[in-house]
Each structure stands twice: as C-alpha cells, then as structure tokens.
Amino acid sequence: EPEVTQTPSHQVTQMGQEVILRCVPISNHLYFYWYRQILGQKVEFLVSFYNNEISEKSEIFDDQFSVERPDGSNFTLKIRSTKLEDSAMYFCASSVGRNTGELFFGEGSRLTVL
Amino acid sequence: AQSVTQLDSQVPVFEEAPVELRCNYSSSVSVYLFWYVQYPNQGLQLLLKYLSGSTLVESINGFEAEFNKSQTSFHLRKPSVHISDTAEYFCAVTLIPSGGSYIPTFGRGTSLIVHP
Fold first, then answer.
1. Residues forming a β-bridge with B91
2. Measured at the alpha carbon of residue B60, what is the angle toward residues B55 and B63, in degrees to the nearest 5?
3. Which among A33, A93, A107 is the nearest to B42, CB-wise?
4. Which residues of B touch A41 (CB under 8 A)?
5. Is residue B98 classed as helix, strand or coil in its secondary structure?
6. Which residues of chain B make contact with A93, given a CB cutoff of 8 A?
7. What one-character-per-residue DSSP string does B61-96 give?
8. Inter-residue long-range contacts of A3-7, CB under 8 Å, 24+ positions, other chains counted
9. Nearest-CA residue of chain A relative to B32?
10. Most buried by CB count within 10 Å: which residue of A49, A89, B27, B28?
11. Which residues pair with B45 in a beta bridge?
12. Closest by Cβ to B104, choosing from A3, A37, A101
C-alpha cells in the first residue's frame, strides 16, 4: 500500500541552526501539506502546496519557514533559524485532490531544539 | 474560523468495555468531519469520515461516529474495545466553503488506553 514517508524520524538541533525535514508523498497525489504538533497541543496546519507553489499557509508559517519540491518526489520543510518553540512533531501529508480534506499522513519527524 | 474541541486528553478503559471519545466543533458553515487514529510509532490514518448522507458512519474495525448538527458533535464510539485499539485519536473538521481550500482543522487528540 502506498504511503507517505518522512525523514528523519527524530532530529536534535541547536537553537539558531537550519533544519530540513523531508517527505516523499504518495506518487499520484497532487496536494501536499505540513502540520505540526507541539507536545500536548493541537495538530496545527502550517502550509499546503500545489503545482509547485504554496496554496495556503497559516500564521505560524512565517519567514523562518519555507517549502519546496526540489526534484518531483521529495517535499521539504526548511526552518531557517530554529527557536526553542519550534520543538514539535512535524507531519507531512498528501492528497489526491482538495475536495474533501481527506489526507494521508507520514509518521512524523520529531524536532527537538536545544 | 472553525475549531475542534476534544474534551478528554486521555481515556483509560478496560478491554471489552464500551468507549466514547468526544468531539465538538464550531463552524458557521457546513462541514466534513473526520476521525484519524495514530498507533504508536505510526502516522495518522483515516478511521472514518462524514461527508454527507447518513449521519452514522462506521469503520471496518467496529468504531462508529454520529454527526449531530444541532449539538455540533461527532463523537466516536465502540461497544467493545480491544488492547489493539490503544492509540491517539484525532477529530478533524473541514469547512465546505464556496471556493475554499478544504484544509482540515484538528483537535488536540485523545489518548485511548485499553487495559487488560
């Protein structure tokens, strides 16, 4: 069964460092998403991506964040200069279309910022 | 904007007992509703969804949820739980806008812990 894969599963970094989280969406899916969950809090929407551009983003997705699809298979989330409050589980998701909101998620990447 | 409230952060229950995980939402427009499940060390998986039609929807592993528009709720139930149902359960809602994006909003999750 096709699945969304994410790497790394866990990354520890120092405050101020750049981090890149990688995702390989399901191959025939067209829409891609990043969500995050700070421990004990809600799963929060960060950004959606379609046709090689951001289609929507939340208030959380500020200038420190960027996404790209560099090679037609990977979908990456970059945090330019990490802060302590960026520590969270980051989930990548993909969907075939955008007409219901049914998403397929990866296992998540846990980011710990020290 | 819509919001999702899962009132219980943790629900402990004994095996074979019934369980209800509560979910309420707020929205001024029509919605689609979802329950996702996250088993340990895995990603979120769709458990069941309400898009239209019958307000009672079922999953293949015995869970069901009922859309109650007047109470803006979508509670998840199972009459008899198994140890293997131990997982994190997330309720999500998507607006049905007239030209919008269908980005789901999630609750904070409820940890279902099934004891032998």
1. B35
2. 55
3. A107
4. 108
5. coil
6. 44
7. TS-EEEEETTTTEEEEEESS--GGG-EEEEEEEEE-
8. A3/A104, A3/A106, A3/B43, A4/A92, A4/A93, A4/A94, A4/A104, A4/A105, A4/A106, A4/B43, A5/A106, A5/A107, A6/A90, A6/A91, A6/A92, A6/A106, A6/A107, A6/A108, A6/A109, A6/B43, A7/A109
9. A100
10. A49
11. B37
12. A101
**B106 contact residues in A (CB cutoff 8 A):** 35, 42-45
Q: Do B46 and A102 touch (CB under 8 A)?
A: yes
Pairwise CB contact (< 8 Å): A107 & B105? no
Residue bearing the bigger pLDDT, B62 or B102: B62
Tens digit of each residue's pLDDT (9 = 90 or more) over B10-60:
999 999 999 999 999 998 788 899 999 999 878 889 999 998 888 899 998
Measured between CA atoms, the residue of chain B closest to residue A56 is B101
Beta strands A109-113 and A10-13, pairing class:
parallel
Cβ atoms of residues B112 and B81 within 8 Å: yes
